[in-house]
Amino acid sequence: MNKGLIIVLAIVGVLVLGVMWGVGKYNGIVKLDEGVNEGWAQVQNQYQRRMDLIPNLVATVQGAANFEKSTLQAVIEARAKATQVTLSPQLLNDPKAFQQFEQSQGQLSSALSRLLVTVEQYPNLKANENFLALQSQLEGTENRISVERRRFNELVQGYNAHIRTVPTNIIASFGGFQQKQYFQAQAGAETAPKVQF
């Protein structure tokens, strides 16, 4: 065989291996990106569950005589604000929109907490089986949201670390992959709330 032909075949072989490596890295990033999107869908699923439970909770509470309307109105308004934010995978690439989403969900959680604390003052409502069932489902949903947010952050951490490492970062920038946003605690979350009856 000709020495020139061997060199050409070696160069072609190296190029083919390089392209295969690049395609493998790109596909790996795509799989991680889809994992983050799936994690995000699970977070959305739990937020939707909470949104679906709130009208039933509000209707049950409204049935209680003399219930504090301002607390109930705060829950209704917070739910309305939370439903105004468009939930899409693109939200993960927009820090400002993601922060707005987090704030609306935080306001809803806060309003629900105030509602449940206020309910303590109404023994008839506390004894209502429908209310107790809804309260239990809502508390379970809040726990599910927490679990899914933690899982989502783990997926984002894996994805972000992967696209920032050398040489994968070259493939990621070529493919237009960007870092995803983490869920973060609301400002002041490190301070325990003061509950007064």
The quaternary structure here is single chain
Radius of gyration: 25 Å
Distance between the termini: 92 Å
Helix run count:
6
What is the structural class?
Answer: mainly alpha
Helix-strand string: HHHHHH
Strand % is under 5%
Q: Would you tell me the overall average pLDDT?
A: 80
| Low-pLDDT sequence parts | none
DSSP strand count: 0
Shape: rod-shaped
Percent helix = over 70%
Please give the largest β-sheet: none
How is this structure best described in words?
With 197 residues, the protein is mostly helical. Helices cover 76% and strands 0% of the residues. It contains six helices and no strands. The protein has helices spanning 3-62, 69-84, 95-119, 123-127, 129-164, 168-175. Helix 1 (3-62) packs antiparallel against helix 2. 20% of the residues are buried.
Summarize the model shown:
With 197 residues, the chain is mainly α. It has helices at residues 3-62, 69-84, 95-119, 123-127, 129-164, 168-175.
Secondary structure: elements and pairs:
Blueprint: H1 3-62, H2 69-84, H3 95-119, H4 123-127, H5 129-164, H6 168-175
Helix pairs in contact: 1-2, 1-5, 1-6, 2-3
Please name the defining characteristics of this protein:
mainly alpha; 197 residues; 0% strand; rod-shaped; 6 helices; 76% helix
